[in-house]
Amino acid sequence: MKKNLLTVGLLAIVASSANSQTVLMHVDAGAKMYVSKGTLVYNGGGLQTKGSGINIPSIENHGNFMIVGNTTSDVFRNLNDGGAEVADGISGTFLNKLNEAGAYASVNPDRNPDTPGVVPIPVYTYGQLFIDGIAQGNIKGVVNQEFRQPAHGSYQQMGFPFHDKTVSSLSGASALGKTFNNTRYSGNEILYWNNTNVVSANLPNGLNTKLGVDLSPFSYFIVGGAGLDVSNQTRTLVGKPVATTSAQLSLQLSGAGANVNFGTNGFAVNQYNEYYNTYLQDSFDASAGVWQGSFGKNIYQFGNPYMTNLDLSQIATAEANGDGNNLSNIYGVRLEVQGVQYSSSGGGGSTSFKILTFASGVPTGDVAYAMVRPMGTFVVKLKSNLTTPETLNFATLRRFNYYRRLAGTAYSVTAGKNTLSGTVKQLGVIGLDANGNEVDRTYYVVSPNTVSGHTANPTVQVTASNSFGTYEENAISGGYDPNYFSYWLYINEANEVNFKGKNIKLVNYNPNIVSFKFEIRENAQEIASGAHLLSSGEGFYYKKGTDTSVSPAIQGSVIASQAGTNSGIEYDLYYGMPNNVVLGTNDIKKPSRTLVVYNSEIDGYFVRFDPSWKKATVEVFDLSGKLVLSKKEVDASKDYVLDLAKDLKIGYLVTIISDKGEKVTSKIVK
């Protein structure tokens, strides 16, 4: 891609004294500087503007702007018409603009394996500002930061890349377009996530709290969504950028939830008298045991503190000349939260998100989402609470590019491409509707180090919170493991050596999904379109339910499928060609006639039992793995009504076990 240095409209730039080095670039009264999309502007010193009111100058940034200080006296500031420094800055002097505002919900494409070395064309771009080497006290100028985000639901998850900005200034038509208060549960409050105490906490000084002063610039904010529209209308927030001084370069990850007792099944309460199980979600540890071990602990929620993208794709590996991050204890990252819901009777939570996990440092899962946009958020889950904390350096994650930096590429804010290496293999199955639009997706990952079957120490596995996914496999023979129907998986893992040629079960409960598309990656990079084989000489395969022959999964291919049903449409996924595709005893099972049925008259669900059953145990889990209903010794001679909240539009997994041990599972999608 052609890299312009600078595109200028009406511009007046003056260099100040070389001896003082306070300011290298000066934009004078009335001047207009336009930085076009794709342009990189580098300023190796301080920057200032002069003028206000009708004489206000402006730098309109649609590209990439770097300000790198060289001395302790370098500044970023705004002067008034008389040349005096304005302590709180002047709005409109530096503007980070959106270029394709309507594409805010689109993910920028990953690299195209069919055109190696060609930079992908991003579909959503925006002006980004990078400031280094200037002390926070010398950053007096302000930036008008435009943004849009997908609507998250009852509460918007946001990062605020500003220093010394009061929360009250987020109210009003010129900011977030609504008025905030400090009333918890109102849908109009702003909370922040306290990593240590595992709670959405009230602001320390109410609406007078100052961003980046009273709270860390890395803070994760939960913003009341009542009347909030950050999707259909471009919003602009104004504030001072966050510096990258030594005190703010990095953050130690230690102690999240270490001293918190969640109680049996999460029924202990936090300082606001809220049950932990009403809001705490941990899809990483759910398969190892809900409310057991490290469930809910070692979770760190962050907001992007900078006006550039953050690239999280290489944070789990030590690289020569890399970004300096090596979270060897990381489990995964949660991004792009959706479906945030809150009810006074049932608490709150999210119905879906994107996930990255790491196999031997290689990202797996939703790899294309590894870039966190300005004002975006992300969640890091560690495997354990180490005695020696691990450090995450945010400053070296900054990246103008809209696609991730590949392993082995020397770090820079504009770092480029690299070649493929490694042995982590991933099959993505994307569920499509009748118009070919994505509805849902799930992943199957294999490597020499990933684990087959249920384990208390999974490596990349993540439980599902949707109506499309895979079930835990029997580690010896493949297929269902009937001992672990209480959860199912968004990212499933198996060992490529001991599970080669064995099947995992993909099940579609979503009636809108009528076809699948395959996305195949090796070491996080997509293989070429139309390709099947990986570097090992093996590939992924699939077959439908009772079919006796398998087909190769081919990159980019789309296969028709029967629409999902409440009882589920089954497929088998394989890594490596199975030796015998004739149905074995693992696949042959007389289906029980026990069903979960919807009754429109009561707007609810009930269990209708197989006539051969006498007694049963009924358990209902939400899709994070939390047990919400349990009833033993249920009389199977009559229907059993499931007493579930009607005001929460979430999904449930129902497990029904007969007195003879026969087990039936069913998914409820609300």
UniProtKB/TrEMBL annotation:
It comes from Chryseobacterium kimseyorum. Keywords: Signal. The lineage of its organism: Bacteria, Pseudomonadati, Bacteroidota, Flavobacteriia, Flavobacteriales. The keyword Signal applies. This is T9SS type A sorting domain-containing protein. Residues 1-20 form the signal peptide.
